[in-house]
Amino acid sequence: EVQLVESGGGLVQPGGSLRLSCAASGFIVNSNYMTWVRQAPGKGLEWISILYGGGSRYYADSVEGRFTISRDIVKNTLSLQMNSLRAEDTAIYYCAATEAYWGRGTLVTVSS
Amino acid sequence: QAVLTQPSSLSASPGASASLTCTFPGGISVDTYRIYWYQQKSGSPPQYLLRYKSDSDKQQGSGVPSRFSGSKDASANVGILLISGLQSEDEADYYCMIWHGSTWVFGGGTKLTVL
Apex CA B21: angle with CA B63 and CA A45, to 5°? Predict the structure, then answer.
């Protein structure tokens, strides 16, 4: 059974940084693509980034240049380094393994 | 960037069927894409329901009842999630998604009320 558990969310000031992690079990993080998707309060789903098994990575325009997706094969985790955070980055951040498996999410709040 | 349009809300009665639509913009043919459907209940993460491209290219999510099914209306350039035999537990937000290049594009979601 695939399980994904996100962590690292919290309250951060505008301009600050945060690193999210997604611990995977039942799925090898470099075996296939993994993504980050976020959901602002009361809003819909927004795709953020993807990391393919081969290493290619892509970002939404809204986070390009500020966010970095990566993985740790030893720890079998996916990460999202978020810099220069803005109020509009406030959301629940979900990691997903392929289209089918999603974690429960971690809340990021950007506020002074 | 592709923008998928979903009605913001839909109401239906228990036992009835509901068709949730996902409209593709002009210039992008629904026939080209696998459409993924997700259900999100209040306070919970999205759950994968199914994907549909054609009757020969479709996949039901693990444990998802067969009363959830996908289809397309090519003439209207629309993807459809059909839920038959509606139950109160089907009340949720539903999102469609496609791959557009190497990105995922979501529809805005439909809030389904069962009453």
Answer: 70
